[in-house]
Give the backbone structure.
Amino acid sequence: MPEVFGGGAARGLPAFGIRYCTDRPGRLTTDLGLSFVVGNGPDRLAGADLLVVLPSAEPPEPSAELTAAIRGAHRRGAILASHGVGTYTLAATGLLDGRRATTHWLRVDDLAARHPAVEVVPQVLYVDEGRIVTGAGAGAGIDLYLHLVRREHGSTVANTIARYIVVPPYREGGRAQFAPAPSDSEGERLTGVMDWAAANLDRPLPVTEMARRALMSTRTFVRRFKAITGTTPHAWLLHQRLIRTEELLESTELPMEEVARRVGYASATVLRERFVKHRGVPLRAYRQAFDATATRRTAEPPDVRRYGSSDR
């Protein structure tokens, strides 16, 4: 968590103040075996804009005080996030009842059995339910944190942080967590095709051409692509085009028609429809909220969160 949310001010990025607390102050052990001392109790949750429940070694039994503090944070509008075993804590508060959520793939069945009112989603990196976001294992925690930064501050900021901590800037939330590993040659071919496609989003990219470049039949290519990425080539291309659209909206003042052309759409109208459907926010509202080229504005930018701007 500090890698994503810490040190931003020194790099000209949004600054986040990080505070740690626990319902039982003292020495804690994480799911990775790390041990450290936390002296603050649940009272430190007061005023937090984002509350992240970190995973412990085993599913915890949160105290009544911590449960009340988490529910109080949710009532006043704070964003709640968890990953791994931390999702059990949110589930124990009842705030996940009737909502989708996820946890480490080894524990999805157990979480569902313990909390039948929660719709537990397996084989995803994270699930965005607006003000409550849950993630899978420890690695997926980074994906979840970057997703929150991207959702609240835009792709440019999230991508800058990802480059600084040397992780992929985006892994799609629906990507399979546990897929068979490809052979070295097959993996290299698929990676090469994906890199080529990402660099040529302004042109038509039929699956038949991608398969040909990967030296596979179309059927084999689609099957192996989904096994490795957890999604179809069509869905992956759509997602890459939307990511590139966000970057262009944030970093340039190009007309919408030119933005559409550069990401492979015949017109701005088609792009607008796709963007609203999958991002939940109009193109111009997104540009106003995250335009990195604009000078300081006197008006408050629109709250993109009210449009439900997640991918899920």
In short: Residues 174-181, 293-312 have pLDDT under 50 and may be disordered. The first strand starts at residue 26 and ends at 29. The beta strands are 26-29, 35-38, 50-53, 79-83, 100-101, 119-120, 126-128, 132-135. The chain has 13 helices and eight strands.
